[in-house]
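== Sequence and structure of one protein ==
=== Format: two labelled lines per protein ===
==== Data for this protein ====
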Amino acid sequence: MAGRVIFHIDMNSFYASVEQAHDPSLKGKPVAVAGNAKERRGIIVTSSYEARAKGIYTTMNVGEAKRKCPDIILIPPDFAKYRVASAAMFAILRSYTHLVEPVSIDEGYLDLTESAKTKHPMQLAEEIQQRILHELDLPCSIGIAPNKFLAKTASNMKKPRGITVLRKRQITELLWPLPVVEMHGVGESTSKKLQALGIYTIGDLANAQERVLQKEFGKNGVRLHKRANGEDGREVDPNAIFDTKSVGNSTTLPRDETEYYILKETFEKLSRSVAERLKVKYLAGTTVSIQIRNFEWQNQTRSKSLKTAIQHADEIFEIAWRLFLEHWDETPVRLIGITVSNVVDQADLTKQLNLFNFEQHIKDEPIVTLVDNMEKKFGKGVIQRGVRVKKKSYASNTSFSKDFLEDHHQK
């Protein structure tokens, strides 16, 4: 793994930059891509650097953004436009190497170890950055390092349009003095738990006892300890992004809500959305989680694990709604989210016999015997029970999730 040259490409203010590229009159102006500006559910998804300079940030309420920046230009999201721009960006990256791993619609890793043998990494980075700028009119930042963690960290150091090289020997000087919450992979919750252990900086984390971290955080504690020491052995895997671990959806309510029937309807709607996404991806999961954010922006999560994987809306709703009722103290609710995790491909599921389906299995027995005989004669897999037909779903194409990566299956 020594001597690898890994790039992390991070598009700058991607949605807003795409809008400015399509409409040059927006350049140099405070632009923000947001939801419905008439309701509180309208939040800032991303903003131009001109808007950020005036205090606008992602997840800010549209009303607050208007008060802070009266001349802000609000644009509704155009997912189709962003997917086209993303595909064009990744096409440029793949012209340098097949080892391109998309992470989200606007970022990805490249393993340019082979290319770096004939061309200096900085020269490659400048060339990629200029091509994306000139061909797509989009800015990006690039991090260069010997592994993915350091490359990701480096790309965040200079924005917009920066190129940063981060070597492992530099981490004690550049990373260790930083607050631990600034480390990629450490959120607010983990940061608070680390501080309770006396770990305040990335350096503290790097020098902490691994067994203490493992006891408190499990495998993730060991992983964070290694990352803080600049260690990351992950390969750049073009197919890694398709290994879905969870499927979920959330919504911000128009007002702080306490009405029972409205909350129930919201849970039902979200359950149908999650079920649709699971079906589109041919997945089912064994853990249902809910996220509740109250009017004071306090988050609460609850989950339930099952013995059998589920994917149907009524099953998801039943569990999610029960979790909510068990833990809701009637505090006004601002946001609701439902996630199904520990997902597996439907084809890998083992159907359990029970009182209600054993008769169907008995009916299928002659078919199973026929298939076995055919396979013995003509070979394994000659007959299959069914053929998957790829489903199209608006649910999979209109969210801010990683569903856009369907585009990459054909690459």
